[in-house]
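Operator note (shift B, R.M.): manual run for Solute-binding protein family 3/N-terminal domain-containing protein requested after the automated queue skipped it. Running by hand, logging everything below so the morning shift can see what happened. Input copied straight from the record, untouched. If output looks odd, do not overwrite the archive copy; leave it for review.
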Amino acid sequence: MSGSNEPASPPASSSTAIMAGRCRISAAETAQNAPNATWVATIMVPARRVNCQSLWLSPLRPLLIAVLPRLARGAHMLLQSGGGSKSRAKPQSAPSRPGRPAEILQSGRNRPSAAELVAENRRSRIKSAAWAPPGVPMLVFPPAALRRKLAGFALLAFAAGTSLAAEPYQITWVLSDWAPNFIIRDGKPTTGQNDVYLKLIIARWPEAEHRFMVMSTARSTLELQRGSQLCRMNLIPTPEREKFAFFTLTHMQLPLQLVIRRELAAQAPLNETGEVVLEKLILKPGLRGITAAGRSYTAEIDRLLADRKGESNVREIPNLPSNDGLFKLLELGRADYTLDYEPNFKYREEQNRDHPLASLPIAGAALIPVGIACPRTRWGRMAVMKIDQLLSEAVADPAYRQAQDRWLSPESVQRYRAELDRFYRQRARPADPARYALRR
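Run finished. Output pasted below as returned.
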């Protein structure tokens, strides 16, 4: 309340803003969503803590932006009319405390202490007041039903914002040029396996702005380590990656296979069931293996390759523009074998029926959990929890399972059906939030 008997005149709309607790809506947003709100107000909410990020980043952000200015204007009008009392008397200014300059109460500078404020309120028969910054008019709620109603409305607005998990209002999705996991057209997802998962998520998250970036696995991993605000699809959770990223699983990838030039397949060491013994293969003279730098081939195989790095016949290929680069090197005869998945090999066959490659199963290989990674930050925690919730809903859509089955042979579908069914049942349940604790 200003020092005069009349309420403070509204400032220009260009400086319009609404402050709620410690949260603030920008002038541009207020002018756009509530053009009639042409004055500045401070609303004090009887709550100890307000999660501002939760409030403004929630799906109810547009609603809150529209409601809070109207709430403030209504309070201002009621105060002008005497707070709804029958007397319709204009609010009186608080008398200055003896020995205290009157300008201290008129401006926001050198705010009085809590004890002094209570004393001033008692003198003016006002039980509570909200002090605003310098030059900002103040709303004073009288100790009547009006104050209780307004406080109730404000609390409802804040509860609506904080009850949701404060999911990001904007999210960047990292894609890779790696068919059929991703089939990218003009930098956007289309019909690849992970493209389908992503579209099902986006369809259930319309209030967020979704952006796409194409990155290699190595670069996206580096961005996650830096805490960049993005989430990467189709990444294998490993103990090392879980130090800097949260994961929520999308599917179980079928086991890795050996992809080798057809004329050299007979040189691959096999066990009694016709499966490749990888420990012997990487040490076999005369063969040249390649892998993609920055890519995980499961924790067990990663460890095997790292332990034998100085003596194995495998070398890492950096800066691959796409996963096809490995297959192309094999087809050109610049390498003899690599490790990859059945869907990738099947897609390659569909694109080039005359390719000179063959695939063989690897001994001891098992289904591999694959998911979406977000940085291990507060933003990443909010993002991954929201994504996990949406995936638990999307898995019921028939398109979810078809996205993977489309790239598997009938024999593989039949062989792994029980394990895949078990995963989909688990995927239908959201993860325990404790799983996404920031401390580690």
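Quick read of the result: The radius of gyration is 31 Å. The chain has 15 helices and 15 strands.
Leaving this for review. - R.M.
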